[in-house]
Amino acid sequence: MSDIDRKRAERLMKEAGLDALVLFQPEAFRYAIGAPAGVATMWGRAGAAIALVPADSGKDLAAVASDHAAGTICKLAPTVDLRTHRIWIDMLDIAGAETIEQIDAAYRRSSAGGPRPETFDRSVAFGLLADLLKERGLERAKIGVDMEFMPAADFEALKQNQPQVTWMDGSTVLRRLRMVKTPREIARLRNASKAAEAGLVLMAAAIKPGAALLELSAAWKAGAHACATEDGFALSGHWDYISVGADLANMNAVVTPGALIKADVGTLVDGYSSDGARTFTYGPAPFLAQDVFKALENAFAAGLEQIRPGNTFGAVHAAMLGSMRKDGFAEYYRGHFGHSVGGGVGIEEWPFFSTNNPEVIESDMVVALEAPFYGQSLGALMIEDQFLVTSNGTVCMNTLPRGLCDLSLG
Fold it and tell me: What is the Cα–Cα distance from 362 to 166, expressed in whole angstroms?
């Protein structure tokens, strides 16, 4: 099932003067079609999987994908008009075959036989797209492409393959589509946040003098996976940036009394990544660290107060930086204080809480607000929570206290 709000997509494409979107990025394909793009996308080239999203919300979605991925796509997205191209993987249904001769006969009866390309044939994929566009009356249309992904060589080949189409950059339309989440996307992000936080609970239980950073990372992963298993959902990935002590780059660090332990972590559910962070110590933190953390708490509160529909992302950044200035940080400059979260490439998804960002906050966005400080020779301090934006403000997806937590106190 597609995660695209087709009515919103129709409005955004109309505003941009587009008749359709053609999406090549694997994550964008999955977002549009509701099924994975397949292994042929590993090459990072355009054409392995292509999603066609007509501006007219009454028109069906269409896709070009590999024969290897076709079964999964047909199962998960049965209403999508799918065209397939051959890739390098030789795969055949041999039910009932008992001899090599019978296997060879099965090849001849099926479409699986015949030469296969080294990886995939871009020109064949583009040709299938051309067929779709002609059938839909879009062969002379204005079509947006996710140019932020598409390699320049592939874009040139696309233009040569279909020169009558007016190809335009559809990246902004795609970004604005993705920043407002559907209920299914919100549910994935809730589960991802819950699992990540359960991992932090188990990690905190493992923090004691002599505990190694890698042990803490393992404990976090174990807690996250256990939560997912218990709640009946699967993790499609996880990531963690954990630092222990004053040397931020020391992956062999061990916990010592009062050392700062920062855990910036996330898990993925169906490709949607959570993002959150907490800071711990075992024993009292240095006074300087306590002073810095208090400033971060103030900045976090100032930013959170600004997250509401109709306000801008830049206003959140201004409030947080202004708070840091009030607390004496005249030279503290942070490029962004958080971002949207979702199923895009990497952890952080546009828009960002950055300087003068005019993008307007909307209901049903899911954002991560972060207040970090990295001080080599002191350690890292960070507060980060994930929020659902509603018409009335925000709903936090995290439950752990945000304070600088001294675990020696029990």
Answer: 31
Q: Is 95 exposed, middle or buried (0-12, 13-18, 19+ CB in 10 A)?
A: exposed
Phi, psi of 4 (to 5 degrees): -80, 130
Taking Cα atoms as reference points, which of 342, 336, 4, 316 lies closest to residue 173?
Answer: 4
CATH architecture of 6-179: 3-Layer(aba) Sandwich (3.40)
Q: CA–CA separation, 264 vs 241, rounded Å?
A: 5
Domain boundaries, the chain: 6-179, 183-409
The pLDDT profile of the chain, 410 residues, written as one tens digit per residue, is: 899 999 999 999 999 999 999 999 999 999 999 999 999 999 999 999 999 999 999 999 999 999 999 999 999 999 999 999 999 998 888 888 889 999 988 888 877 667 899 999 999 999 999 999 999 999 999 999 999 999 999 999 999 999 999 999 999 999 999 999 999 999 999 999 999 999 999 999 999 999 999 999 999 999 999 999 999 999 999 999 999 999 999 999 999 999 999 999 999 999 999 999 999 999 999 999 999 999 999 999 999 999 999 999 999 999 999 999 999 999 999 999 999 999 977 789 999 999 999 999 999 999 999 999 999 999 999 999 999 999 989 999 999 999 999 999 97
Q: Which fold has domain 183-409?
A: Creatine Amidinohydrolase (3.90.230)
Q: Using an 8 Å Cβ cutoff, are 362 and 272 in contact? A: no
Assessment of whether the complete model's pTM goes beyond 0.85: yes
